[in-house]
Write a structure and sequence with these properties.
By secondary structure, the protein is of the alpha+beta class. The protein has 2 domains: 96 residues, 2-Layer Sandwich (Alpha-Beta Plaits); 67 residues, no CATH class. Helices cover 51% and strands 15% of the residues. The protein has 6 helices and 4 strands. Strands 2-3-1-4 form a 4-stranded antiparallel beta sheet, sandwiched between helices. It is elongated and about 95 Å long. The termini are far apart.
């Protein structure tokens, strides 16, 4: 039985805008990829700080990972390697999609969402929101009780007005001042 060809996604991150780094980096990546890929089975897109690759190899995940760790130049600050999953969500321009994955442009096919997963996530989020709302209500009630039962003094209110102005007074504080002046 022959060796099975696997597809991997590789994300290389670094700051390689400078002209001094670029030729060495390109040669290093090319050399490393030549040891990993089957034939010329890889495609990539680049940006100022990222290279995204789709590659095919007869090597196992651990072997590919080991080669990348050992031989990639330090100019590659970080990388993420992952075997191609059965399902993958992404948003790409149709030309980039074709370039990276070899997929012909598709016609507005809706994304598949597992209904059981969606239902479970909805329950979990609702539970979390309900829990947080109970906490918020409880905190608001405690703060309201604290403000309503505090013994106000004229000196404290005058200090507050002096520091933050009349607009900073609560309704209870204004009521206290009005009662005090009458």
């Amino acid at each position: 039985m022959g060796t099975r060809t696997k597809t991997y996604f590789l994300f290389l991150l670094g700051n390689w805008k400078t002209k001094n780094v670029h030729p060495d980096l390109v040669n290093n990546i090319k050399d490393v990829m030549e040891t990993i890929i089957v034939g010329d089975e890889f495609s990539f897109i680049t940006g100022d700080n990222v290279i995204v690759m789709s590659l095919k190899s007869n090597m196992g995940f651990e072997d590919v990972d080991g080669i990348l760790h050992e031989f990639l130049t330090p100019h590659v600050a970080a990388f993420f390697l992952m075997p191609k999953p059965r399902k993958l969500s992404y948003r790409l321009d149709q030309n980039l999609e074709y370039h990276l994955f070899g997929k012909k442009p598709h016609t507005n096919k809706p994304n598949y969402v597992n209904p059981l997963l969606a239902e479970e996530l909805t329950k979990q989020l609702k539970s979390l929101v309900d829990f947080k709302m109970v906490q918020i209500k409880k905190n608001m009630q405690e703060n309201y009780k604290k403000r309503g039962t505090k013994d106000l003094t004229l000196d404290e209110l005058l200090d507050k007005i002096n520091k933050t102005g009349m607009d900073s007074l609560t309704k209870n504080e204004i009521k206290f001042l009005n009662n005090y002046s009458s």
